[in-house]
Amino acid sequence: MTSRHIAIDLGASSGRVALGTLEGGKLHVEIIHRFPNGGVPVRGRLYWDILGLWREVLHGLKLAAQHGEIVSVGVNSWAVDYGLLDEHGDLLNTVHHYRSARLNGVMERVRADLSDEAIYSATGIQFLPFNTLYQLAAERPDHLARAHRLLMVPDLFHFWLCGNAVTERSNASSTQFFDPRTGDWARSLLDALNIPASLLPTILEAGSDLGHLLPEVAELTDLRGVRVILPATHDTASAVAAVPAEGDNWAYISSGTWSLVGIETPQPIINARTLAENLTNEAGIAGTTRLLKNVMGLWIVQQCNEVWKLDYGELYAQAAKVASGPLIDPDSARFLPPGADMPQRVQDACRAAGQPVPHTPAEITRCVLDSLAVRCAQVLDTLEAVSGQRIETVHVVGGGSQIGLLNQRIADASGRAVVAGPVEATLTGNLLVQALGQNDVAALRSVVRASSELRQYTPQASASQPFFRERTYAD
Question: Which residues are catalytically annotated?
């Protein structure tokens, strides 16, 4: 049998509407519509153009309707950001961007009021300044008083598609007010911060059926009889669902603007060691936990290239010709904000560490990619140590899986085999959960292996392990 499904993938820099056709144990993914995304600065704050994204989604759905009978549609997006609705279901204000300056100092204030141990023991989530917990703590009290419901970004789009205001477990788990042990909201934590838990919707599992498209949406898009099915709505959870792994002893890197470095575990691991390492326990499909760490990904190169305006393929090819040199700490707070001065920030970090200063785009890019590889290798070692789970193979999925230099350096730095692909992991995971559900993960990943072109990288004997293991970098 053949079935067709639509995946809507909203990323921090772009969005896609894709058609997935499942036939004969293979999935064919066709991107129907692409559109840009990014922060909109207004009076020192940063926002998402959420209504512009909705317009693009409707357009993409209308294009997809031309490809024959569609079974279902589902949305995934980046994590942590949300919309507030009033009692009538209307959006109260626009959606804040997680890189907005409104969050400056908020995490530190909350952590001063509540101990790290109290927050982490309740949630098991990595401390990041843009977590939803701190975003709510930054809200004006009158805004929260007028709000009736909080919906994470993909849940907001599902609400607009079908009228069902719920949240899905993987994205709920990213907020830092979800209890991974109970599978419910960490209500006592919210009470301690005077954040009304009544705002929070029911949590459902990936694969849940939310019902048909609203009549007005069906009319606008020419989609009839289409159901809305929850994928793993956190884009990383969808990407990990599409990791083409077999057996045990593997880790993943969802490689894009961020590098999400992690393993799958049957239960959350929340203890003093994972707190000290600032690891996060986020929900995956089929009741699994994604024990991982957010590492800065290609964001630094992307911001540099906003200045250079170079072809990425050529940029990476030129970087591969540059000898390894300085290293930076890609997770330094100095690299978090956007800005045209990103190349200068990389140079300043090298200068501060007493290392050679890269000058050309190729040299700066090589510095960043080597640094990302080192950081990923460090996190892999930490995950192995805290879990007791041996990591032999690293699966790199997402856009970064196309960068041969980066994948080879991850293999060299970690001393582990790297398997790269699929590129469209998030779309693939979204579509397969819609089509097959989440209960038979082995069958789902078998389809991924049958449908994907994978590339293998092995650690090179010529790579200087002391360079990666002994070199240090400074903030």
Answer: 235
